[in-house]
Amino acid sequence: DVNRNDYRAWNGLAQVYELLGLNGYCIYYYSRAAQLKPDDSRMLVSLGETYERMDKIPNALKCYYKAHSTGDIEGMALFKLA
CA–CA distance from 37 to each of 25, 54, 57, 73 (Å)? Predict the structure, then answer.
């Protein structure tokens, strides 16, 4: 049975589309995952990197700032903000 409220499924789809280079879909699926688990810093950094690839820098910076604010596990958000 499919659980539409499981952020891992949305995150997994985003990663697949990221590998395929389909950034528009990638943003959609990362955004859905982030709605379900807004405190996942790694996912927010991935969303920010996707925005950055699409030259949507203000959106990317918002993602990095939010990731840093939620406890940036790997320190990537702070690195991206520097």
Answer: 18, 23, 23, 15
Summarize the confidence of residues 12-25 as an average pLDDT: 97
Q: How many domains is the chain built from?
A: 1
What tens digit of pLDDT does each residue of 25-70 get? 999 999 999 999 999 999 999 999 999 999 999 999 999 999 999 9
| In-domain check, residue 32 | yes
Dihedral of CA atoms 11, 32, 30, 40 in degrees, nearest 10, equals -70
What's the N-to-C CA distance of the chain in angstroms? 43
- In a 3-state reduction of DSSP, which class is residue 76? helix
CATH number for the domain harbouring residue 39: 1.25.40.10
Identify whether 2 is part of a domain: no
Q: Could you tell me the residue range of the domain that residue 77 belongs to?
A: 7-81
